[in-house]
Amino acid sequence: MFVLGIETSCDDTGIAIYHTKRGLLSHSLYSQTAMHSEYGGVVPELASRDHIRRVLPLVKQTLKAAKLGLNDLNAIAYTQGPGLAGALLVGSSFAVALSFALKIPALGVHHLEGHLLSPLLSTTAPVFPFVALLVSGGHTQLMEVRGIGQYKLLGETVDDAAGEAFDKTAKLLGLGYPGGPALSKLADEFSKSGRANNFKLPRPMLHSNDLNFSFSGLKTAALSLANKHEITREVQTEIAFAFQEAVVEVLTKKSLAALTQTGFTQLVVAGGVGANRQLRENLSKYAEKMGITVFYPSLEFCTDNGAMIALAGAMRLQKSMGGIPSLTNSFTVRARWDLETQEIPPNE
Ligand code: KG4
Ligand code: ZN
Q: Any idea which ligand is nearest the CA of 164?
């Protein structure tokens, strides 16, 4: 079965073709980062308009790369939520219209399900059950994963997501948008410099005796540190290092606690912050001591992409989860959507 995956939940247009036996055949991504960076963050209306421009050429390009035509497709998986409503509408309406025209099913996929299954795209993949640490710009969650569609939330952030905190801290250090990768680069520069670390930031909720997180106070602590000093390159790298160290320590300790709590021996790290080098090193170091194997998606599949949506859709269709969707020319998007309960929170 050839499944076309379409991701348009935020500022990346991601398209992929996944075959249920042969695996990922091709994928393409258009990142809108350069366009949004001018405004210091994602402008939803601009994001939607750009998805409209990109989606069709990218589908054509991805089909060509897989040496396939539209008529070879057997199903379409698209991100139905959560995300920016207007951006989701572009991918969803495109997917449903194409499915109607081709007379093949279209399946709405949860964006976070895509992220947490993304390590299954690697040759060394985890097997169920595992604990997933989802760390993106919008979410920070620890999830117990027993199988496709079997998710139990173990803990989550009570305020900012880890990626959001990276981006906001980077912004206050004058690193532009999106600042996560830039901040992490500076932090690495500091650790390589061998200089002593004079700045220490708090480890929020480290001893909260639950698996929840909080990152907004950390960003404020970084801000008050920055306000006390002249922002030279040295100070920038030092604050970046202290910030990253604090986030990494909390994420690592809570992930290990989730593994102890569940008794599982595999940890999957997914979402954009999963690209962070120090997080990867730290997690692997401590997990190894506990006999835990840590799985990461390849760097290109850490951040938003179409491959994870095609994969999640293919897995659901193979299991006939929710039944084979019937052909329809109507659809809805779910800007907010709970993965564990599959419920849409009130006020939507
Ligand atoms: O998963 P993702 O692409 O989009 C969402 O669904 O949110 O994650 C994007 C987030 C951004 O906040 C970005 O700053 C962060 O991931 N990020 C990083 C790194 N690369 C991306 N944060 C820390 N270190 C990185 N190397
Ligand atoms: Zn994402």
A: 1
CB 312 within 8 A of CB 117: yes
pLDDT of residue 10: 95
The reply to whether ligand 1 has any atom less than 6 angstroms from the CB of 297 is no
- Residue 186: both structure tokens together: 């500076």
CA distance 166 to 276: 11
Compute the distance from residue 230 Cα to the ligand 2 centre, in Å: 35
User: Dihedral (C-alpha) 268, 338, 313, 90: value to the nearest 10 degrees?
Assistant: -120
pTM of the model: 0.93
Q: Is the pLDDT of residue 103 over 80?
A: yes
The protein residue whose alpha carbon is closest to atom 7 in ligand 1 is: 137
Distance between Cα 10 and ligand 2 center (Å) = 8
Determine the pLDDT at residue 323: 63
> Are the C-beta atoms of residues 76 and 106 closer than 8 Å to each other?
yes
* Non-local CB neighbours of 203 within 8 Å, separated by 6+ positions: 246, 249, 250
* 180 Cβ below 6 A of ligand 1: yes
Closest listed residue to residue 142, CA positions, set 204, 215, 212: 212
Domains of the chain: 2-116+302-319 (3.30.420.40), 127-296 (3.30.420.40)
Q: Does ligand 1 have an atom closer than 6 angstroms to the CB of 167?
A: yes
Q: Quick one: which atom of ligand 1 is closest to the CA of 270? A: 1
C-alpha 348/C-alpha 339 separation (Å) is: 15
Residue nearest to atom 3 of ligand 1 (CA): 303
Contact 93, 332 (CB under 8 A): no
The mean pLDDT of 297-315, rounded to a whole number, is 95
Measured in Å, residue 203 CA sits from the centre of ligand 1 at 20
Residue 275 CB–ligand 1 contact under 6 Å: yes
Q: How far is the CA of 103 from the centre of ligand 1 (A)?
A: 36
Whether the Cβ atoms of residue 113 and residue 271 lie closer than 8 Å to each other: no
Q: What is the pLDDT of residue 347?
A: 63
